[in-house]
């Protein structure tokens, strides 16, 4: 579409006329020496690109993939990746830079006028389209056959329902979940009276004396690994994860149930009541539990109440005690569903 | 000056001014913020007595003459030698200035002075001792186990790659990239500041050695993929791309668009 003839008006027949603006000549247009230099610049960029392409192949063959190299700011990095990335990037960049330099310095840069059509369709086309629409409406009888129209609307409206219903299959019930409603399943966890609390990761049972004041343990039920083996999924872990903390009993201002602690040891769900992130950012001096996702903050010395952030419910507390062998156990399941709110909770 | 005047409307000028201003403010703040506390004098003959002297001179104004604690600072009775070694050995104490948190700093006291202070505090009441060389020997530790334990017990605050992270009200979990094995062990054992305590009964000596071995791996391993950007993951990588890469693309577009002279 552009006029390729350099600065020689008048334009050849059939081409687009130059714009009626003042045209400033470039140094390369007037000085042959500069033009020659620009030509050499472009050619050397293309030549460097050839060199980097060859270097890429050489690096690929020659550099051991486990070798590392120290580069300031970046630190100790893989030599092969750096070499491949730099040579390939430079080879491509130099082709582009050379092309732009060529276009800017040596190709014609005269201002031209480009003719365009009107944006609006001709009136005849508009009338024709409207007429076809009206004819279709008339011939199909969409306005006339009222029953057909209404049943079609009903059919189209109901059609997406199967797609929505199939979303239920995203949740696959485990053997002991069969026959229960989703609300029941969300409201119960593995915890029951007498079930030992073990440290997550090591799966060692916990004695009260293992947990000093200011201590924190991420806990799971003692039978979690067996359950996971049967179920083959992580739902049980997700629901039963707790944190055990110990504070000076004098610091406990309130609890969710009378005597739910054991000598200052408290157990709370690890799952945020906002949208279910696992939380263990426990500040032992303020007794605050902070969720890293949206900064909901719970005061564990005060029944796990929300003191900051978007969470609407307190962190559920698990009543604990010790068994006859002196290990910390749960005394029941949670009294309220853990984790985020759901439909049936209202 | 004519050269500068002619280019003051160039698109590069605004960016250059902004970068220059940021550098001046940042470096100025760093220079003002890193004022060191005064050096304390060395004590007398026996270690405990020397420690007591150092304590009375450097610590008692806040922690009390008998280390019983005051309105400004907690009691040190029963914190143990490990707490002193961590707090003073990492330069957190003596506190340079009141704030949300005592930051790590250049230690004010020498290693011998820290040992003397620790010996004195340990005589006040039983508390966690400084870990022995044997406890700190992580040569045979299980790094994979250490990684798992780190992700369960430490990563929630210190971030999965040990880069640290924010807590509430200006407090933060520090970056672990410069931490020594002894200070990592002591921090787990004593729970300094906001950090919970991880006793030797809960995370055994072997568990702690495994965690230390994992942190040492994080500290020393190379980064084969190039610039780590703080190992914070997709957020910093996205910000980097949005600024550096898009900036470069915009600069290229401007270059293409400018008419040649």
CATH level-1 class of the largest domain in chain A: Mainly Beta
- Helix segment count of chain B? 11
Give me the CATH architecture of the largest domain in chain A, please. 3-layer Sandwich
**Average predicted local confidence, pLDDT of chain A:** 89
Distance between termini of chain B? 22 Å
Helix percent of chain B reads 40-55%
CATH architecture call of the domain at 131-222 in chain B:
Orthogonal Bundle
Number of strands of chain A: 13
Cα gyration radius of chain B (Å): 24 Å
Computed structural class of chain A: alpha+beta
- Class from secondary-structure proportions of chain B: mainly alpha
Relevant CATH superfamily of the largest domain in chain A: Rieske [2Fe-2S] iron-sulphur domain
Helix content of chain A: 25-40%
Verbal overview:
The complex is a heterodimer of chains A (346) and B (261). The model of chain A is unreliable at 1-6 (pLDDT under 50). Chain A contains nine helices and 13 strands. In chain A, α2 runs antiparallel to α3. Chain A folds into three domains: 1-114, no CATH class; 125-163, no CATH class; 185-345, Rieske Iron-sulfur Protein. With 346 residues, chain A is of the alpha+beta class. A five-stranded antiparallel beta sheet of chain A has the order 3-4-5-6-11. Among the domains of chain B are: 42-129, Orthogonal Bundle (Cytochrome Bc1 Complex, Chain D, domain 2), CATH 1.10.760; 131-222, Cytochrome c-like domain (Cytochrome Bc1 Complex, Chain D, domain 2, Orthogonal Bundle). In chain B, β1 (165-166) and β2 (172-173) form a beta hairpin. Chain B has helices spanning 2-7, 11-33, 47-58, 60-63, 80-89, 111-122, 143-153, 155-158, 181-190, 205-220, 234-257; strands at residues 165-166, 172-173. By secondary structure, chain B is mostly helical. Mean pLDDT of chain B is 84; it is low at 33-44. Chain B has eleven helices and two strands. Chain B has a two-stranded antiparallel ribbon. The A-B interface holds A 24, 26-28, 68, 73-78, 81-82, 85, 100, 104-105, 109, 199-202, 206-207, 209-218, 245, 278-286, 288, 290, 292, 295, 297, 308 and B 145, 148-149, 152-153, 156-157, 165, 167-168, 171, 191, 193-199, 201-203, 207, 222-228, 255-256, 259-261.
């Amino acid at each position: 579409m552009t006029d390729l003839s350099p600065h020689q008006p008048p334009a050849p027949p059939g081409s687009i006329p130059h714009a009626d603006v003042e045209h400033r000549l470039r140094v390369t247009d007037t000085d042959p020496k500069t033009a020659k230099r620009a030509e050499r610049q472009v050619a050397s960029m293309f030549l460097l690109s050839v060199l980097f392409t060859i270097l890429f192949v050489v690096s690929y063959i020659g550099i051991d993939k486990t070798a590392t190299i120290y580069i300031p700011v970046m630190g100790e990095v893989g030599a092969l990746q750096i070499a491949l990335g730099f040579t390939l990037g430079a080879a491509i960049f130099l082709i582009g830079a050379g092309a732009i330099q060529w276009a800017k310095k040596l190709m014609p840069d005269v201002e031209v006028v480009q003719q365009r059509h009107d944006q609006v369709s001709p009136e005849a086309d508009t009338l024709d389209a409207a007429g076809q629409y009206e004819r279709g409406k008339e011939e199909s009888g969409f306005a006339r056959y009222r029953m057909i129209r209404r049943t079609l609307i009903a059919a189209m409206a109901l059609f997406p329902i199967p797609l929505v219903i199939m979303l239920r299959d995203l949740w696959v019930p485990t053997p002991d979940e069969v026959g229960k409603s989703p609300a029941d399943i969300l409201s119960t966890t593995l915890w029951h009276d007498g079930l030992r609390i073990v440290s997550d990761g090591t799966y060692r049972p916990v004695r009260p004396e293992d947990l000093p004041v200011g201590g924190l343990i991420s806990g799971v039920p003692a039978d979690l690994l067996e359950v996971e083996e049967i179920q083959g999924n992580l739902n049980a872990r997700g629901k039963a994860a707790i944190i055990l903390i110990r504070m000076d009993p004098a610091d406990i201002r309130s609890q969710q149930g009378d005597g739910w602690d054991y000598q200052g040891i408290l157990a709370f769900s690890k799952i945020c009541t906002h949208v279910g992130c696992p939380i263990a950012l426990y500040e032992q001096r303020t007794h605050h539990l902070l969720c890293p996702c949206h900064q909901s903050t719970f005061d564990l010395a005060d029944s796990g109440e929300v003191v900051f952030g978007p969470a609407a419910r307190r962190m559920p507390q698990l009543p604990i005690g010790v068994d006859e062998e002196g290990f910390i156990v749960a005394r029941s399941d949670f009294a309220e569903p853990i984790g985020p709110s759901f439909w049936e909770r209202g | 000056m004519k050269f500068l005047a002619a280019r003051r409307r160039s698109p590069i000028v605004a960016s250059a001014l902004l970068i220059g201003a940021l550098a001046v403010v940042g470096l100025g703040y760093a220079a003002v913020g890193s004022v060191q506390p005064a050096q304390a004098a060395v004590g007398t003959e026996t270690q405990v007595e020397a420690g007591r002297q150092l304590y009375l001179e450097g610590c008692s104004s806040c922690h009390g003459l008998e280390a019983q604690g005051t309105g400004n600072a907690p009691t040190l009775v029963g914190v143990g030698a490990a707490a002193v070694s961590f707090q003073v050995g990492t330069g957190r104490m003596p506190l340079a200035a009141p704030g949300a948190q005592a930051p790590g700093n250049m230690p004010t006291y020498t290693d011998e002075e820290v040992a003397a202070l620790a010996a004195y505090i340990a005589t006040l009441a039983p508390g966690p001792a400084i870990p022995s060389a044997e406890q700190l020997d992580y040569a045979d530790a299980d790094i994979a186990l250490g990684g798992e334990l780190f992700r369960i017990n430490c990563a929630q605050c210190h971030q999965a790659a040990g880069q640290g992270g924010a807590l509430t009200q200006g407090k933060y979990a520090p970056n672990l990239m410069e931490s020594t094995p002894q200070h990592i062990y002591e921090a787990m054992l004593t729970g300094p500041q906001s950090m919970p305590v991880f006793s030797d009964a809960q995370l055994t000596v072997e568990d702690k050695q495994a965690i230390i071995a994992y942190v040492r791996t994080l500290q020393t391993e190379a980064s084969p993929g190039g610039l780590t950007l703080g190992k914070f993951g997709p957020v910093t990588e996205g910000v980097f791309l949005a600024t550096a890469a898009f900036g470069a693309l915009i600069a290229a577009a401007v270059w293409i668009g400018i008419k040649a002279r």
